[in-house]
Design goal:
35% of the residues lie in helices and 15% in strands. By secondary structure, the protein is of the alpha+beta class. It has a four-stranded antiparallel β-sheet. The model has no long low-confidence stretch (mean pLDDT 89).
Length: 170
């Protein structure tokens, strides 16, 4: 299969990366994942707009300084995190194959409605996967958005719950 990625200058990109066999290793090593994001940002600058880290996957909205680098950004995050992990998480010498699913999912944000839909999906993800209110999940950008006035602290978007949980972004 010849997969084609879309590159639109100044675009925001929604990314989902999932661990191999959904191993729940991200939260226990959250510091290493943050470090991997920082190292990637130093090499390939990007604005991190919104994010959620779950035990076995993450979602992030980024705006790369150069849109052509978003595959490099995600690859660099995955490789850096893999290299930083203690060796006991690797089952063989091809460490990345045991840490991450081979690919990731991406979506170029089309407009403001699409952006809001993806922001809601990110911030509702703690409810979807852990049954934890967005305000109580420490591994997301939700509280930053509350501080900016974009969401109320008690936001769950219950009216859209069924629609949000059926979006296939993982």
């Amino acid at each position: 299969m010849n997969y084609k990625r879309l590159f639109i200058p100044n675009a925001i990109v929604f990314i989902t990366a999932v661990t191999y066999r959904r191993k729940p290793i991200l939260i226990p090593h959250i510091g290493l994942l943050r470090q991997a994001f920082d190292v990637a940002n130093a090499k390939y600058p990007f604005e991190r707009i919104a994010f959620i880290i779950n035990p076995d996957h993450f979602h992030v909205l980024i705006k790369p300084a150069d849109i052509n680098t978003y595959p490099k950004i995600i690859g660099f995050i995955k490789r850096t995190f893999t290299k930083l992990l203690p060796l006991e998480h690797s089952l063989n010498t091809n460490r990345e194959a045991n840490i991450w699913q081979r690919r990731y999912w991406e979506h170029i944000i089309k407009n403001e409605i699409d952006l809001q839909k993806h922001l809601d999906y990110i911030h509702y993800n703690s409810v979807k996967h852990a049954g934890i209110a967005p305000r109580d999940w420490p591994y997301s950008s939700f509280r930053t958005f509350v501080e900016k006035g974009w969401y109320e602290l008690e936001w769950y978007n219950l009216d859209d719950k069924n629609q949000i949980v059926t979006w296939d972004m993982e």
